[in-house]
Design brief:
The protein is an alpha/beta fold. Helix content is 26%, strand content 18%. The protein has a 4-stranded parallel sheet with strand order 3-2-1-4. The protein is globular, with a radius of gyration of 18 Å.
Length: 120
């Protein structure tokens, strides 16, 4: 018997159904990454710190917001240990792109700890 790597055709009947192209969690939404994910047909759940920012995102992408391809969640303080607990429970999430960091121009070595801790 000759062994070979499985192909996509081998998995046609066993693949799980996709949400509108596997949902991606993007924290927070860098514009260039958000644009690329939406353009490629991914469903994106993203986080912002306020409803004002959420409204601006929905206004910038009205078709995707209306269709459910873009969901915006409010996470007011990303440095909290449980900041992302609820949003990661979103059904259909396949990938987390955690680009958030509590950065400001007054550098301190302790600033590198919260981004790691928030996703554990």
């Amino acid at each position: 018997m000759n062994w070979r790597w499985p192909s996509r055709a081998d998995h046609k009947t066993t693949e799980k159904p996709q949400t509108p192209r596997d949902a991606q969690l993007l924290t927070p939404p860098p514009a260039h990454i958000l644009e690329q994910l939406l353009a490629k047909g991914h469903s994106v759940v993203t986080t912002v710190r306020s409803e004002d920012k959420a409204s601006k995102l929905r206004e910038a992408h009205p078709a995707q917001a209306a269709s459910g391809a873009l969901t915006v969640a409010i996470v007011p303080d990303i440095a909290q240990p449980d900041a992302f607990d609820e949003v990661v429970k979103t059904p259909g999430l396949e990938v987390v792109l955690h680009t958030a960091s509590p950065f400001h121009f007054r550098y301190s070595p302790s600033l590198s700890t919260p981004p790691v801790q928030t996703m554990h």
